[in-house]
Amino acid sequence: MPKLPQIDGLLIVPRLRIQNANAISSPMTWGFPSMTAFLGLMWKLERLLAGDIAVVFNGIGVVCHAFEPQVSRGGFTKSFCLTRNPVGKDGGSASIVEEGRVHLEVTLVFGVVGDILMASTTEREAAAAHIAGLLARMRVAGGTVLPGVSPRSPQLIALEEDEEKQAAQIHAVRRMLLPGSCLVERNDLLERRHQQLQATTPATSRLDAWLDLARTNWRSVVAQDENGTETVTWQHDRTDGWVVPIPLGYAGLADLEAPGTVLNARDTTTPFRFVESIYGIGQWVGAHRLKNMHQMLWYSSADDAAGMYRCCNDFTQYL
Amino acid sequence: MDHYIEFRLLEDPEFAPAQLMNVLFGKLHLALAERGCDDIGVSFPDGDNCRTLGTRLRLHGTAAALGRLMQGNWTAGIRDHVAQSPVQPVPAGARYRALYRVQAKSNPERLRRRRMKRHGVDAEAAARQIPDNAVEVLKLPYVQVASQSSGQRFRLFFQYGPVEAEARNGEFNAYGLSRGATIPWF
Amino acid sequence: MSTALKTASVLAFERKLEPSDAILFSGNWETRNTEKAWGAIAIREKSVRGTISNRLHLKDKDKEKDAAKLDAAIENPNLQTVDVATLAAGQDTLKVSFTVRVLPGTGQPSACNEPAYRAKLLATVEAYAREHTFAELGRRYAFNLANGRFLWRNRMGAEQVEVCIQRLENGQPSVTWTVDALQFPLRSFDAPAAGNAAVDELGALIAQGLRGETHVLLQVTAFARLGMGQEVFPSQELILDRGRGDKSKTLYDVSGVAGIHSQKVGNAIRSIDTWYPGADELGPIAVEPYGSVTTQGKAYRQPKDKVDFYTLLDNWMLKDKVPALEQQHFVMAVLIRGGVFGDKE
């Protein structure tokens, strides 16, 4: 069972405005960018900082404050607003590739360890500002970071060992994240729905349960009053909060290949594997509902033998 | 009407000639309206018997009238999209013709309102008498402009009269058009 | 002698000039320097009846002869809903505002699977940067900010245009240039005497940013005096699969404020290519590997003329045939533009 690595401090980069982030991050879902994008961002940042600042990123949490998908408005069926690509060399119009784009405002919370946490306030502030400056020049989920006028500056906080003091710290951090929602993993809901469906239809698969959770199911409920008069009401099953289907990572489709042995791979130094997306259930939780920071942080687990490359989150462990 | 200025729309990677002509003509209309000019006529040398006006616009008038018009800065903004000639005399041997505005009976609602008023019929009868397909279809070149007096956007359709040997004088409106007068044609 | 160098099958570059969306405000020319005097321009819907002549003209390219279809169209007068945006009543000036970030690392591929090719590419770009310092490109990008090309249609209708460019450092403007944009031509890069210094300074700063010597973030604000209540032109959205009854023209807005897409702003800034065959006729076009101009459905840099990006780059990298200086500028400008250029057999 993978577990969130040690977290001694938090780096908070508040209110990043991101333009044209990718809104189609798996073959079956659209919407908020995948957590794989944010874990990738975290590693890229860590590599950029290597040797500069003594900090290691062990987890990342995302709080979404604004979500503006670039889709047509009005009408029940929406479609993505697309972009026209330049004409080809023969002057013929280029084929239109469907891309989904979204403008976001997010706060990033990194769970960190490292000597920088022991440094003075001034040094920590400088480090946080430096990291935020680097972030502003990076792509986040394919999107561009806009120069924001955030009233809050980035913060690097060393978590107190004393439980009470730490609780006060977390309380302050949570307030900083409002109003906003964090994405957490709720595989327990998937298991529960799977069992519920199996009770009536034993052949139900996890995929069925996942699809069932991904939509609103309305059912008629017949009630009888004391005179025996029947009344029918309609009830839906979206009572577990803001539950969403999300991609969680990748599962291998074939064996791991040695670096440089697969034609047209992106680089020649990394082992290569063909994969497909794996899916799970996520939930958007109001930042004020977090019991601790571990609940919002995501981390990765890679298991070459099992061919499983997954984003993990421990929200349910603290329910 | 013995002098003229010629504007030629430059080929543009982004904007079609018709779009540029709309803007150029709109600016001209604004300039003529603001100055109250009644001595400037327009012509589109490429726009005879064509579906589009082409890429040239001429202003006709006396050297003094054209000089007055060009004193202002009304070509700002569109200047980078046109090549503008100096005020120059009309070549010898030019002929003359009139350029009219043509108003299409293209809006059935308008025709029905008119019928209701003039013949005292109700809306239903008017709609029966003037079905949607009983309207005129113009195959004439046009510019799309916003009127300076009403602010309405509309299409201004042009039609040329026959080529004549003699010039006729008269007043021009703020679109550079005239009922009676001719402009040099060459 | 090692084996012959070959182009990477995966070769991609991120763009190095990163504009934001431009957003549109309404106000008055006289109070253009008063921040509070500006209101966001919202998109409005209006219903228009497609008149008959209108429909005929829309179809005149292909369907003119198809009388049956035309009759059918006439019998179904369609009430269309379209989006419009205008200045507020009693206000005469459009304000357009966006930021541009200049990123370092021109020529560093974001993906490249041929280490030898990568090394050659970096060495070539470094040599170019050392010798030519990105000065010409920086100046041209600066020019396209100064001339207000990014206003697109909004520039044509204007009587006056002022562009104010500020360098932002730590969120505060550190240098400001203000120019009369209509004095800067769209068809050449010859600055007016009064604006020459501004373009030189700004161009030098952008070049510095491209060389990675300093971080450059610019705030660009343009004021276009259009006349009272005039129509303004935000970007139009490209929506395929429109449903029945959907709007026939959707304009772009960001959180309710009319906007111009960042792609369109970027396109204006990189309209610096005057080095293609036919440039005398058409003037600067946006930097594209094949010199393609979408509105014309034409590509001006044809491989058969050996002036397209791929031919120039291959000659330079693989055959050590250094292109003429202007074409070197062009190749660098394509790398700054970014894109996926791999050679997949």
From TrEMBL, chain B:
What would you give as a GO molecular function for this chain, any one? endonuclease activity
Q: Which InterPro entries match?
A: CRISPR-assoc_prot_Csy4, CRISPR-Cas6/Csy4_sf
List each coiled-coil range.
none
One GO BP on record is:
maintenance of CRISPR repeat elements
What's the protein called, per UniProt? Answer: Putative CRISPR-associated protein, Csy4 family
The superkingdom listed in its UniProt entry is Bacteria
From TrEMBL, chain C:
Record-linked Pfam families:
Cas_Csy3
| InterPro entries per the UniProt record, alphabetical | CRISPR-assoc_prot_Csy3 (IPR013399)
What is the designated name of this protein?
Putative CRISPR-associated Csy3 family protein
Recorded source organism is Megalodesulfovibrio gigas (strain ATCC 19364 / DSM 1382 / NCIMB 9332 / VKM B-1759) (Desulfovibrio gigas)
Question: Highest lineage ranks of the organism?
Answer: Bacteria, Pseudomonadati, Thermodesulfobacteriota, Desulfovibrionia, Desulfovibrionales
